[in-house]
Amino acid sequence: ALRSGLKAGDIIRKVDGKSISNLSLREVVKRIRGPRGTVVSLEVDRPTDLTTREIKIERDVIERKAVDSTYLKDHNIGIIHIRSFLFHETPITAMVREAYEDIKKEAGGQPAGLIIDLRNNPGGDLGEAVRVTGLFMEAERVVTSLKSNRSTRDLESDGYPIVSDNLPLMVLVDAGSASASEIMASALQDYDRALIVGDRTFGKAKQTLSPNLKQF
């Protein structure tokens, strides 16, 4: 979808020329999915430029690392890209620790700055996001969840950061940043631990409470 030009915020109107207006989400997904190597045609509206376009996507098996890292030698800055907070065997927290260790090896120690890339991160396990947040700041309340009976539950970070408290942090977000990734970004911003840069996020985090929760 990314290679074909589909963007966050595009509104799907038709799949293979047939309207999906009266279908459930499950039915739409069933129509879009198919054998690897086959092509599906989507008619989408793009609100950003008020256009309608046809996008053809070759179906494939999606395999990508949940976390990876890049070191910008010329600037002595590390980038940790966290694509999801879902994991099957290795916790995302462990992956982030490993990614930062890789950056430190290349930098010969702590870098001059660190970028946490949460763009197009749809969220995942909230507890895992809270633990990852704790890798970058002291023990604090990361989020408060409000239950249907109006009771609340505070989730706090472990408070064993892998970086020094004076290391400059920047968090990248966009319209594809949602749920747990919004909560992580919000917490790091609320406690003045990181600068948030990017586009307005998806907004799912409005369903929860944080000391100063917001769409960015």
Account of the 3D structure:
The chain has 216 residues and is an alpha/beta fold. The protein is globular and about 55 Å long. The protein has helices at 25-32, 92-107, 126-133, 180-190; strands at residues 11-15, 18-19, 39-46, 51-58, 67-72, 77-82, 113-117, 141-146, 152-156, 169-173, 195-198. Helices cover 20% and strands 28% of the residues. Helix 3 packs parallel to helix 4 (180-190). Mean pLDDT is 90; it is low at 207-216.
Rg (CA only): 19 Å
**Strand arrangement, major sheet:** 5-6-7-10-11
The biggest beta sheet is recorded as: 5 strands, mixed
Give the distance, in angstroms, between the N- and C-terminal Cα atoms: 25 Å
Shape: globular
Number of helices: 4
Poorly predicted regions are 207-216
Number of strands: 11
Q: How large a portion of the residues is in β-strands, by DSSP E?
A: 25-35%
**Share of residues in helices:** 10-25%
Q: Order of helices and strands, N to C?
A: EEHEEEEHEHEEEHE
Summarize the structure.
This protein has 216 residues and is an alpha/beta fold. It has helices at residues 25-32, 92-107, 126-133, 180-190, and strands spanning 11-15, 18-19, 39-46, 51-58, 67-72, 77-82, 113-117, 141-146, 152-156, 169-173, 195-198.
Name the descriptors.
216 residues, alpha/beta, 5-stranded mixed sheet, 4-stranded antiparallel sheet, 4 helices, 11 strands, globular, disordered C terminus
